[in-house]
Specification:
The protein is an alpha/beta fold. It has 2 domains: 3-72 and 90-226, Alpha-Beta Complex (Spore Coat Polysaccharide Biosynthesis Protein SpsA, Chain A); 229-323. 23% of the residues lie in helices and 31% in strands. Strands 1, 2, 3, 6, 7, 8, 9 and 10 form an 8-stranded mixed beta sheet that branches. A 6-stranded mixed beta sheet has the order 4-5-18-11-12-15. A 4-stranded antiparallel beta sheet has the order 14-13-16-17, with no helix packed on it. Strand 4 (74-75) and strand 5 (83-85) form a beta hairpin. The radius of gyration is 21 Å and the shape is elongated. 37% of the residues are buried.
Length: 328
């Protein structure tokens, strides 16, 4: 039986839909070698459906917004302690992602597939040598994933693609239990789907990891939506537990240049100009007792308004965005 390529997708606009169309058309060139399953939280046109073997539409795209469930990526720019912030996304799509993965894996198992290569909709695949290599490795290993390495952040699973031996998948990737998944997220130090998926793979055992660099060596592209225009993710305020001051971090990961204006208490203005891609800046906004409102403006567009009128507002802010106490 052929290996299965499982595409997970959420394409609510033409831009993302076109990325999916490009990927499906590319994979159609390898239809004699691989079957393709597409599972999506948005409906897709018939021309795309007609070029995959299995199409599943699930309209329940659950977004988690409770403070103890939202994703809090972290960054340690100067060794002064990790900065964790839920304001980067203000949500967690973990449950929506796992609905697609679990439904796809369980359906694939029931259809008799033995090996699955999961990819996201915003990939471009012109060469399948990596899939072929993984298929051989899956005769020995249960799971294969990729590690993304960036300075200052945890070396974690690269979320765009993994490969699995379906018969060796853990029950947590075959049976959908919303309560159990929420509890898993709530009790995890990092709410990142990548970190939690990596832990599930490790707990299952018999895995192998590769550098994500190998994915790009033969012209393939992954996570192309990260290049789309929008706010730079790492432009957020946080509470520094080392000195109980509110601070603002800019780590430019997406734009050639980015500029911020932060307004504190409707009167104090702090400018951060022309931060180059790949660089970071931290600015102090004021002591905890003195700050009651923060407005952040990115490239002349209002991004966020934080009202910190009372102790409860400040406690909630602290739970969502903070810097850990340094061990230095």
């Amino acid at each position: 039986m052929k290996d299965l390529i499982l595409i997970t997708a959420y394409c609510p606009d033409n831009n993302r839909l076109e990325k999916l169309r490009i990927l499906v058309n590319q994979l159609y060139n390898f239809k004699d070698e691989y079957d393709v399953m597409l599972i999506s939280h948005t409906s897709v046109p018939v021309d795309i459906q007609n070029k995959v073997n299995v199409y599943l539409f699930d309209d329940k795209n659950i977004i988690l917004t409770d403070h103890d469930l939202i994703n809090k990526p972290w960054f340690d720019p100067n060794g002064g302690g990790q900065i964790l912030s839920g304001f980067i996304t203000s949500k967690n799509t973990h449950l929506a992602i796992y609905r697609m993965l679990i439904f796809g894996f369980s359906l694939a198992k029931n259809m008799g597939y033995k090996k699955v290569h999961q990819i996201e909709y915003d990939c471009e695949i012109i060469n399948v040598d990596e899939f072929k290599d993984n298929s051989k490795l899956l005769d020995k290993y249960s799971s294969i994933y990729y590690i993304e390495k960036k300075k200052g952040i945890q070396r974690i699973l690269f979320g765009s693609t993994q490969s699995f031996n379906i018969d060796k998948l853990p029950i947590s990737l075959l049976k959908y239990d919303e309560v159990e998944i929420k509890n898993l997220i709530r009790n995890a130090y990092s709410k990142s789907p990548e970190v939690i998926t990596q832990q599930i793979i490790h707990d299952n055992g018999n895995y192998i990891s590769k550098s994500s660099d190998v994915l790009f060596e033969k012209g393939n592209k992954f996570a192309t939506s990260n290049d789309d225009n929008g706010f730079n993710p790492w432009g957020v305020p946080y509470m520094d537990l080392n000195d109980n001051n509110y601070k603002f971090i800019v780590w430019n990961t997406t734009k050639d240049l980015v500029t911020y204006k932060i307004i504190v208490n409707d009167e104090k203005v702090i400018n951060i100009n022309n931060v180059k891609k790949g660089t970071w800046v931290i600015k102090n906004l004021g002591e905890k007792i003195d700050v009651f409102k923060i407005i952040t403006i990115e490239d002349d567009k209002i991004r966020d308004i934080f009202n910190l009128d009372n102790s409860e507002d400040k406690k909630l802010f602290r739970k969502i965005s903070w810097r850990k106490i340094s061990k230095q």
